[in-house]
Amino acid sequence: MNISGLGRNLAAQEYGKVAKKKSNDKESGLAKESKKAPSDSVEISSQGSLVSKVGNAGQTERQTKIQGIKAEIEAGTYITEEKLFSAVDSAIDSALGGL
What we know:
The chain is mainly α.
């Protein structure tokens, strides 16, 4: 039996050894890095803080309006003739297609 081309196999084996060593080096480097305690931080700019305050102010205004409407409904004063006629006019206009 005659086997030729062992030189090529040796080159492939050497390449495999180098690749494996690099892989091991990377893994050990990752292991060293993972031992460090992770630290997360968040910084909010002054603009972000302002946007947050404006959004909260809008929520407060909305809650006040909702509470007022609920109070009117409970008192029986929410639906007025003016609101009723306006709603009927809008419904008729919508049904007629704005003719």
